[in-house]
Each structure stands twice: as structure tokens, then as C-alpha cells.
Write a structure and sequence with these properties.
Blueprint: E1 3-10, H1 14-24, E2 35-43, E3 46-53, H2 56-73, E4 84-89
Organism: Nocardioides panaciterrulae
Protein name: Antibiotic biosynthesis monooxygenase
Length: about 100
């Protein structure tokens, strides 16, 4: 079952997003293995990222093997604090 993640970074900026994205994605034109969708933009008081993975396991693998280790090591110019996170099993995923 597809699995969605929404990360909101209060006070986050486009510049922080660009630095973080470069550190955790294989390239600007390619998603990490298991990720089906990625969107991001300014929202309210910060920056929000939405991602859809093939499954919860796919998300957890990306989180545990790539995202968290790189964020914990520090991403120059990246987000300075952990996001507010919302996760959900997706009932419907349309093209």
C-alpha cells in the first residue's frame, strides 16, 4: 500500500529546501528508490514537502538509511531542525 509523508518545516526557506534536497536525493531529476512522488513549496510560516512511497517499508528504509543519517550529520545550508511530520497509508493514488 502506498504511504504518504508530509513534512512541514516552520520558518523553512526555499534555500534550505534546495540544500537538503541535494543532500538526500540522487539527483534533481531522479527520485530515491521506492519514492513515487515528490512535491514541495512555501506554506504558511515555512516550507512543506510531500512525498509518496511505494510502502511504509520503502519510506522507513529511505528515512533510516539516507534521510536521517545525512540530516544528523548536518547539511550545510539545510533545515536546522526536524520537521512536523504527518504520515498516512494512502487509500487512493491517482496518476
Amino acid at each position: 500500500m502506498a504511504y504518504g509523508i508530509i513534512h512541514h518545516f516552520p520558518g523553512g526557506t526555499r534555500e534550505q529546501y534546495e540544500a537538503s534536497l541535494a543532500a538526500v536525493h540522487p539527483s534533481r531529476d531522479r527520485l530515491p528508490d521506492g519514492q513515487l512522488f515528490h512535491a514541495a513549496g512555501p506554506s504558511g510560516d515555512g516550507w512543506t514537502i510531500m512525498a509518496v512511497h511505494e510502502s511504509q517499508e520503502s519510506w522507513e528504509r529511505f528515512r533510516d538509511e539516507i534521510l536521517m543519517p545525512r540530516m544528523q550529520a548536518g547539511i550545510e545550508g539545510g533545515f536546522g531542525s526536524p520537521p512536523e511530520e504527518t504520515a498516512l497509508e494512502l487509500y487512493t493514488l491517482m496518476p
